C-alpha cells in the first residue's frame, strides 16, 4: 500500500488530514517536518502531508523555510476544520478533570472552556501524544485536548466536543510528491512559488506589477528571512492560474526579470473548502 508521511503521532490533525485527503494511503507518522520530507525522498513514503497555515494561529513555523529545499512538489492542498475535544479516561467526567494537556498552540484556542471549568492547561509536545499519555496514566484528573480521532486511537472518552473558542478554526495542508504534476486543469488552479528580488530600487513593486497588468490574482504574499540574514528576504506566494496560461506566463516572465531566485513549488487544483 502507498504511504503518506505526516508530522506527529497517530491521532494528530495531520493524521486526520491524511485520512480525509488520501484515504487509500497508509499514514506514516514522523517526529519532525524534516523527517517527513526525508521519508519521501528516501522512498519510505510516497507523499508528504505538511501544514502551512492556520486561520487562528497563522503561518506554521519553519515550513516556508523547508519547502524550497525539500526536493518535493506541491500536488494538492487540503483543509481540516480543527475541532478540539476534551479527552479523558473511560468513565471520567468533565468535573473530574484538573489538568488538560496539549500542544502549546492548541491550549489558547480553548481558553474559554478551560477557564469556565477551572481546568489548568499543561503543555505537551504534541496533542496526539498528550492523548496517548493520558491513556497510559489512567488518571481521571488528567485529560488531553486533541481530535476525536486521537480519542478513538487511544481508547479515551470524549468528555466534551468542539470546545475551541473560534468556530472557524481551520488548518491548510499541502500534499507533496517527489514529482511535479502540471497536467491537471480546472477552473480554479493555484500556482505556488518562492522568489527573491534583485537589489534594485522598487524591485518588489515592479515585480508585482506584472500580475496586476496581466489580471492575475495574487491570493498570498509572505516574506521571511533566509540564511540568518536581515537583508536576505525571500517571498512565498500563491496565485490563481496555471503557468501555461498566457497571462500567468507573462506575469512570471516579468517577475523573473526582477528576481535573483524564482522557483515554482507546485501547480494544483484549488480544494473545495477554499
TrEMBL record:
Q: In which pathway does it act?
A: Amino-acid biosynthesis; L-phenylalanine biosynthesis; phenylpyruvate from prephenate: step 1/1
One record GO biological process: L-phenylalanine biosynthetic process
InterPro entries this protein is in? ACT-like_dom_sf, ACT_dom, Preph_deHydtase, Preph_deHydtase_CS
Instruction: Give the range the annotation lists for the signal sequence.
Output: none
Q: Name one GO molecular function term.
A: prephenate dehydratase activity
- Which of the seven top EC classes does this enzyme belong to? lyase
Keywords on this record? Amino-acid biosynthesis, Aromatic amino acid biosynthesis, Lyase, Phenylalanine biosynthesis
- Name under which the protein is recorded: prephenate dehydratase
Species lineage? Bacteria, Pseudomonadati, Pseudomonadota, Alphaproteobacteria, Rhodobacterales
Amino acid at each position: 500500500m502507498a504511504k503518506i508521511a505526516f508530522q506527529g503521532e497517530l491521532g494528530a490533525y495531520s493524521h486526520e488530514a491524511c485520512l480525509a485527503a488520501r484515504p487509500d494511503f497508509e499514514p506514516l507518522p514522523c517526529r519532525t517536518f524534516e523527517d517527513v520530507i526525508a521519508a519521501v525522498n528516501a522512498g519510505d513514503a510516497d507523499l508528504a502531508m505538511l501544514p502551512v497555515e492556520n486561520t487562528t494561529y497563522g503561518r506554521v513555523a519553519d515550513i516556508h523555510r523547508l519547502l524550497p529545499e525539500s526536493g518535493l512538489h506541491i500536488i494538492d492542498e487540503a483543509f481540516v476544520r480543527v475541532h478540539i475535544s476534551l479527552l479523558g479516561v473511560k468513565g471520567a467526567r468533565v468535573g473530574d478533570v484538573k489538568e488538560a494537556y496539549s500542544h502549546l498552540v492548541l491550549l489558547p484556542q480553548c481558553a474559554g472552556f478551560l477557564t469556565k471549568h477551572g481546568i489548568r492547561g499543561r503543555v505537551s509536545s504534541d496533542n496526539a501524544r498528550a492523548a496517548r499519555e493520558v491513556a497510559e496514566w489512567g488518571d481521571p484528573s488528567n485529560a488531553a485536548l486533541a481530535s476525536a480521532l486521537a480519542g478513538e486511537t487511544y481508547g479515551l472518552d470524549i468528555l466534551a466536543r468542539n470546545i475551541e473558542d473560534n468556530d472557524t478554526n481551520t488548518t491548510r495542508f499541502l500534499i507533496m510528491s517527489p514529482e511535479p504534476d502540471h497536467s491537471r486543469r480546472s477552473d480554479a488552479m493555484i500556482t505556488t512559488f518562492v522568489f527573491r528580488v534583485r537589489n534594485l530600487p522598487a524591485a518588489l513593486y515592479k515585480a508585482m506589477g506584472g500580475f496586476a497588468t496581466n489580471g492575475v490574482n495574487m491570493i498570498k504574499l509572505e516574506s521571511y528571512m533566509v540564511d540568518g540574514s536581515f537583508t536576505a528576504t525571500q517571498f512565498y506566494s500563491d496565485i490563481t492560474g496555471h503557468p501555461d496560461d498566457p497571462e500567468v506566463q507573462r506575469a512570471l516572465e516579468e517577475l523573473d526579470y526582477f528576481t535573483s531566485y524564482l522557483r515554482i513549488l507546485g501547480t494544483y487544483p484549488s480544494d473545495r473548502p477554499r
